[in-house]
Amino acid sequence: MEIYLLNSTPFEGVKNLILNELIFYDFKVNLDDFQALIITSKHALKALKRSKNPLNLNLRVYAVGENTAKEALNLGFKEVKFPKQFYANELFKEFKEELKECKCLYLRAKEIASTLDKDLLNFGVNLTQKIVYENVYKKSQLCLNHPCIIIFTSPSSVRNFLKNYTIKSQDKLVALGESTAKMLKNYENLFICPKQNLKECVEMAKNLIKSV
């Protein structure tokens, strides 16, 4: 049984199915005008790096997940926080009081699955949002061998997959995160990875093969 991963990260025994393309925007921002930087994806940090805007490494960074937090530390940011559970709504719950005391910058995608922006604004956070990248659909010519295991990494990966392919009744679906799982709630054989981590998703998929 083949494993297909809707992500470009390579793993042994897994086929990468690329159905999206990232478009990074040119943007100007003065990080010295803010006290906190909110990041929900590594792509936002890539966009910041590509923008050539001077970095304020003393800025407090609030990241959704551990991997995004590590990316911020690799860029040189000194104070980086992330919630115990790697979801945008958990970031809001855990840090909303801190963020309310700050002038915050949220670097984000054109389309987002969470309501983090609305939650922060409704709570009274002084929030500036900048759209710094876009995730666009890209058709694939890869033919899938069914039944198979498909690892979905985001809500947009589900939407893009369904534009190109059909989920068969015997396929097993692995979802990275609750937002992604909600997009697949009408399908059987859905498994939600307990950790928001690609490696964990792949391990889950490989264990599903062993159980067949």
TrEMBL record:
Matching Gene3D superfamilies: 3.40.50.10090
Domain of life: Bacteria
Catalytic activity: hydroxymethylbilane = uroporphyrinogen III + H2O
Domain Tetrapyrrole biosynthesis uroporphyrinogen III synthase: start-end pairs: 30-187
Pfam families in UniProt: HEM4
SUPFAM superfamilies with a match to the protein in the record: HemD-like
Alphabetically ordered keywords of this record: Lyase, Porphyrin biosynthesis
UniProt GO MF annotations: uroporphyrinogen-III synthase activity
Stretches that traverse the bilayer: none
Single GO BP term: uroporphyrinogen III biosynthetic process
Protein EC: 4.2.1.75
Coiled coil: none
Protein name (database record): Uroporphyrinogen-III synthase
Organism from which the protein derives: Campylobacter cuniculorum DSM 23162 = LMG 24588
